[in-house]
Design goal:
By secondary structure, the chain is of the alpha/beta class. It has two domains: about 1-160, Rossmann fold; about 170-285, N-(1-d-carboxylethyl)-l-norvaline Dehydrogenase, domain 2, CATH 1.10.1040. It is built from 13 helices and nine strands. Strands 1, 2, 3, 4, 5, 6, 7, 8 and 9 form a nine-stranded mixed β-sheet that branches. The protein is globular and about 65 Å long. The model has no long low-confidence stretch (mean pLDDT about 95). Bound molecules: NADPH dihydro-nicotinamide-adenine-dinucleotide phosphate and 4-oxobutanoic acid (SSN). 4-oxobutanoic acid (SSN) binds near residues 95, 122, 123, 174 and 231. 4-oxobutanoic acid binds near residues 121, 122, 123, 174 and 231. Belongs to the HIBADH-related family. NP60 subfamily. This is Glyoxylate/succinic semialdehyde reductase 1. Pfam families: NAD_binding_11, NAD_binding_2. Keywords: NAD, NADP, Oxidoreductase, Stress response.
């Protein structure tokens, strides 16, 4: 199976590499073209533009930073729309809002192509290990066609119905995750400032009803102030912003998410946006020490 792949950031690089290692022919493109070189060593071919990739491949996957990047790669000069058409499928795995996804869906289908949104749960390591959770929605025939690739990329794929449902599911999940990360950061700081051993807190949490893989994975590195990026904080803040907008549209009051968003925004203003989202821990530390 030949797959086009647009976007070789933290997630895209790991996912494209997995496809190559599992025998897929992959043609890659990235805005910063130099990032394609490592994939070429593993057998990838480079496409000069998104349009060139779509021209060559019947299925093209994208995973890009945010709505503006997702739209740019489709609508701008040399973009996906220039070559999409009958018999060609476009799968956007970026985390975006349903409005962005719908715009891409309309444009792709107006040219005769098929479209699937398929954002993912799981971060750098699950992407490397092919253990993502895929939240697909849109063209069901394209979903079926993509299953061999999804089976390599993920441990479970969901087909959630019409376009927008995948985007919304992903935003709800990440809204919960962002609020949890803030509560966790506050707990770590409170434990430490009140004289408790934060490692003991991690042990206690891990044996109770709120044990979860995120606390288990991020807790030890947060205690060491190590925020090497797996999921960049700027993307988590984008997801909080988009989830809050979804809350606005549906008149859902989300004070915990709004407070978490403020913390992520503050972290971005302190230039922590390229670090892991767990760096929001630093904001809690500052607030506590200034009070
Ligand atoms: N990291 C994670 O744990 C997870 C991330 N996600 C989501 O997946 C998406 C990608 O995340 P991640 O890989 O971490 O992000 P990165 O920041 O590592 O990579 C972003 C990618 O988008 C490209 N890009 C950014 N702006 C543009 C633009 N205007 N035009 C074309 N390309 C652009 C970048 O190109 P360039 O290299 O040139 O900058 C790069 O390939 C995001 O939507 C994120 O929310 C979902 C699940 C987990
Ligand atoms: O969007 C990023 C999700 C990160 C995760 O699920 O661990």
């Amino acid at each position: 199976m030949e797959v086009g792949f647009l976007g070789l950031g933290i997630m895209g690089k790991a996912m494209a590499m997995n496809l190559l290692k599992n025998g897929f022919k992959v043609t890659v493109w990235n805005r910063t073209l130099a990032k394609c070189e490592e994939l070429v060593e593993f057998g990838a071919t480079i496409g000069d533009t998104p349009a060139a990739v779509v021209k060559k491949c019947n299925i093209t996957v994208a995973i890009l930073s945010d709505p503006s990047a997702a739209l740019s790669v489709v609508f701008d000069k040399d973009g996906v729309l220039e070559q999409i058409g009958s018999g060609k499928g476009y799968i956007d795995m970026s985390t975006v809002d349903d409005d962005t996804s719908s715009k891409i869906h309309k444009a792709v289908t107006a040219k005769g192509g098929s479209f699937l949104e398929a954002p993912v749960s799981g971060s750098k390591k699950p992407a490397e290990d092919g253990q993502l959770v895929i939240l697909a929605a849109g063209d069901e025939a394209l979903y079926e066609e993509a299953i061999p690739a999804f089976d390599v990329l993920g441990k479970k794929s969901f087909f959630l119905g019409h376009v927008g449902n995948g985007a919304k599911m992903k935003l709800v999940v990440n809204m919960i995750m962002g609020s949890m990360m803030n509560a966790f950061s506050e707990g770590l700081v409170l434990a430490e400032r009140s004289g408790l051993n934060p490692h003991a807190l991690l042990d206690v949490l891990d044996l109770g009803g709120i044990a979860n893989p995120m606390f288990r994975l991020k807790g030890p590195t947060m205690i060491q102030n190590n925020y090497s990026p797996a999921f960049p904080l700027k993307h988590q803040q984008k997801d909080m912003r988009l989830a809050l907008a979804l809350g606005d549209e549906n008149a859902v009051s989300m004070p915990a998410a709004a407070a978490a968003n403020e913390a992520f925004k503050k972290a971005r203003s302190m230039e922590l946006g390229d670090l892991d989202f767990s760096a929001v821990h630093e904001i809690v530390k500052i607030h506590k020490s200034s009070s």
